[in-house]
Each structure stands twice: as C-alpha cells, then as structure tokens.
Amino acid sequence: MEMTQAIPKTAFEPEKNANKDAGRHARQKLMWGLFGLSSIINLAALLLICGFLVINGLPAISLSFLTEMPRDSMTAGGILPCILGTVILSLGAMAVAFPLGVASAIYLNEYAAPGRTVKIIRLGIANLAGVPSVVFGLFGLAFFVTFFGLGVSILSGVLTLAILTLPVIIGTAEEALKSVPQTYREASLGLGATKWQTIRLVVLPAAMPGMLTGAILGLSRAAGETAAIMFTAAVFFTPYLPTSIMDSVMALPYHVYVLATAGTEIDKTRPLQYGTSLVLISLVLGMNLIAILYRAKLQKRR
Amino acid sequence: MALARKTKDKLIQNFFFMMALSSIVALGLIMVYLFMEGVPIFQKVSPFNFLFGSYWYPTSDPPDFGILPLIAASVAVTVVSSAIAIPLGVMTAIYLAEIAGTRARNFFKPVVELLAALPSVVIGFFGMVVVAPFLQETFDLPTGLNLLNASIMLAFMSVPTICSVSEDAIYSVPRELKEASLALGATHWETIARVVLPASLSGISTAVILGMSRAIGETMVVLMVAGGAAMIPTSIFDPVRPMPSSIAAEMAEAPFRGDHYHALFAIGVVLFVFTLVFNIVAAYIADKHKQVGAATL
Fold first, then answer.
1. Pair type for strands A70-71 and A76-77
2. Mean pLDDT of successive 10-residue segments in chain A (302 residues)?
3. Measured between CB atoms, which of B6, B112, B251 is closest to A42?
4. Is B130 helix (H, G, I), strand (E, B) or coil?
5. What's the pTM?
C-alpha cells in the first residue's frame, strides 16, 4: 500500500527515500537485537541456576554422600535413600504409564477415525496435562492412599506419577507413530497382513526409538516431581531403605524441600541442600540431554 | 479362518480403544474424588463465603475458611509472571522460528527444553537462596520472599511453554504470505510485525493461556518463595499465599477428614476449575482458528 505512493517519490527524491530505508533497516536491527537478547536471557537463566548449584553443590558430593544414610536428624551423612526412592518412583511410574500411553497413542494414530470421540479423548489428554501437580497429589491421597487403602507408599506414588506423566508419553508416542511413513503400512497391508500384524511387526519397531525418547522424558518429569508425591509416597525421614512397594520412601526433590524449609537447622544443612539439588538436576537434565541428543540422531537418520 | 482373523483384529482394536479412554477416566476420577472430599466443607461455610471470605485462619477457634486472599494471590502471581513471561517467551519464539540460523536454533531450542525440565523444587530453592536475599537488599525489604520473587521464578517456568507453542504457530504461517510481503518491499521485521504475528495470533494466544495455566497451578515455587502470608496483596513486594502453596503447606497438619482437610480439597477444586477453564479456552481457540493455509486469512 505504501509502495504505490512511494514509487513516484523515488524518482524525484532518491536521498530522502534512502534515509527512510535506512531507518527501517535500523529498526529491524534493533528488533533483532531484542529477540536475540531474549533468547540469551533464557540461556543465562539456565546457566545461572545450573552454575550456581554446581559451584555450591560440588564440594558436598562425595562417594559417602551418595551411598550413606542421613545421620544426626538429617544434618549430616548421605542421601542414598532419597536417590533410591526417586529412582524407584520414576521407574515404577514409567512401567505403568509407558504401556498405557503407547496403547492410547496407537489407538489415536492407527485406529481412530477422526470424529467426535477422538476430539473428546484429545481434549481429555490436553486437560490432564494441564492439571496442577498438587491436584494430582490431592487425588492420589483421596483415591490411592485412602480409598484403595494403599497408604503413603511407593505404590500410591507410582500410580499418581503414572497418571501425571501419561500425557507426555502419549504425546511423544503419537509423534513417533506419525513419523513412520504411510508406505510402510501400505506395503504390509498389501502383503495380506492384518492391521494388528502391521502395527506389531512394522509400525511399532519403526516407531520404538522415538517412543523411548518419550519414556526418558517421562522418567525425568517423574523424578523431578515434588507436590504429587508429598501426600502419596514421600516422607520427611525414614531410617530404613524400602523393602516392598507398600513402604514409604524418601525422595530427592522432597528432601531438598524439607531441608530448605523445615529442617532443624536450615543454615547448617545448606551444603546438603546444594548437594541434593545438584544430584537431582544432574539426574533430570542428564536424562533430558540424552533424549534431546538421541532425538537429533534419529532425525538425522531419517 | 478369515473371519477369525477379522474378529481378533476387531477385539484388538477395542482393547486399544479402552486404553485410549484411560486419560478421560483419570480426569473423571480426579474430578469425582476432589469434589467428594471437598464438598463437605460447604456444610460449615457457604460456597459464597468460602470463595469471597477474606480471612483464611483454618486452625483458629472458630476457624475462618475464606479463600479470597489465596485466589487474589494466585491471580496476582499469574498476572505479574505473565507480564515477564509473555514478551520473553514470544520474542524467543520469533527468534527461533524466524531469525536464528540452523546452528543457533539447534543450540537455543535445547536450552529452552532444558529450562522446561528443571524441577520446580530446584527453581524454588534458587529463588530462596539467591533471588530472595538479592531482592531484600536491592529494594530494602523486610523479606525477599514475596509476590515479585515468586512471579520471576514462575515466569521462567512458563516461558518454555509459551515459547514452544508460539514457535509452532509462527512456523506454520504459510510461506507465500511472507513471500508476498517481502516481495512488496517490506523488511523482514515489517513482515514479522504485520503479517506473521497477526497470522499466528491464535496460536500465540493458546501459548499464552497454557503458560498462564502452568503458572497458576505451579506449587513448589510459590510454596518456597511467595512468603506465605494469607493477605490480599497491595504491592508486588507483599508476601502472599497462592492456592497451591496453601494446599501443600497445610495438608500434612490438617486432621484427616476434618474441616480443614475438606477445605483444602475444596481449594483443590477451585484450582482445578481455574486450570480446566484455561485449558478448554486454549483448546477452543486452537481448534476454532486453526491455521490451515493462506485461504483461511
């Protein structure tokens, strides 16, 4: 629109127009700077948090810190039960959520005809993904702990975390299924295989690497979760390592919270808090990094 | 034989359908159990007084169960954090989708993803030990654990959501729209501002709503850094007690199935309804204004 007016001007006032163009390009430069800056702010935030925890947490990390029980009402000693608790809870949650999520994704991507039912299911998944973690905690308390009488236990925590991570698994599994070329399915069906044979022998093997990325992401999400386990599985302190799925456990994220806010001597246990946080983010970010690199490798191969 | 094969396939399909219903069933059960444990409080206090009562003293005698200060606190942290997170998230998305070269993109995208993966308790911890003392000294406050601190920390939790959803939206703007604009002599920035952003506005709105939903429901951060005072905030330096932090902090002490316990579940219902509305609105916008192609503009 501007151009139609600008064109005749160009012929008579080339200088003025050049100035105007310079201004437009300067404005673009300014905006580019702002956009770049906002990306750098994100990077800075990530580096600041990680760097701070590494610098303060590293001195606390030692073999005994990782392999010993807490001592002297958690003001000394290690965090073995927390590491163990977090590993058990997140692996357990994946053992439940992964098959369920993959099966849901198979239905949505392979079987379902687009329509009302699928729309409702998708809305349900989107809303489940948006439920606050503390609400999952409340639900776990009312349903698994109380109604099923499972008590504050690994099992209650695992089931609560499984529901919480379900949307992540479904999302990534569906992505993986979508990336399997349609020709694979057609070739298999053309050879006389049934739909199920096609899914089991052709589609799933091709999609499995992508689904595993999702499982790793789900694992890391479950490992970092605090509010969902604080009423369902995690306890302040237990002198025993868990021996059955009906035992309650200590967990890394809850331990950080407890030490930082409710411990007997908050300032004295700072090194423990830094150390525990460092172990937690190493675990969580490490798993995410693996998933990201693995996914990049998969995309390159394709 | 052929019939058996068909029957088997049909059975398998039904099995997968049942599995796919699990999310809906879970969502339904969450609603049912929240309501079942939350509704009994309304025998003691009317829903109106519960929602709009301005005193939250659940343990005094007689107790006061008014959650207006908690709702106000939740809304306040969400609004302030959005004021930080929306520009930051959308601008990062524009950078990633429009400006960054392949290498910069391959570097910054994982950065945003890792930011999203940081456990909330770690962000809360950082807010407690680093940001709180900093705010306290810089602004000479009685405490650095306040609305502003919680909002800053929450902003960095919702930026990844806002950024990745907006980026998808910007990415899906048809190429020919951009090319038409550039061919008319517009600069790249003018094209972004007047063509790309308007065309992806519905996707960006969805992103913003999802980001806000994440902020209002986030628990550990507000539990650790918001300060915990159940008052209606009058300044961004006031300590506050948003809904999730009240639930998380008080559940351990609330007597099982007592009034306080039921009241906390009722807060859970309110919180759940807030996020449900956010998510349904986001889904509605995304569905209604789907970007299919140039023809839809």
1. antiparallel
2. 47 64 88 94 96 95 90 82 95 97 95 90 93 96 95 96 96 94 94 93 94 93 94 89 91 93 78 94 94 87 64
3. B112
4. helix
5. 0.91
